[in-house]
Amino acid sequence: MSIVNTSAINYPITTSGIPDGSSTQKTSSADSFKNHVQESVVDAFKRKNPDRASHVDQQLKAGRAVREKYGKGISTEDMSMAEYQAYFYALLDTIPYDYTQMNNTTTISISDEGWEQMRKDPDYEAWILGYFVEDRSVRNPFFGWGDNDGCIIYEQFGASIEEHRGVGFSKAALKGSKPDDDDDEEDWWIKRHKRMKKLLKEQVERSVQRDMAQKAAAREEYAKHQYASSQRQHSFLTKGSPDDQAAPTSDSPAASMTAAAAYNSILDLFAGSNTVV
Question: What pTM, to 2 d.p., does this model score?
Answer without folding.
Answer: 0.54
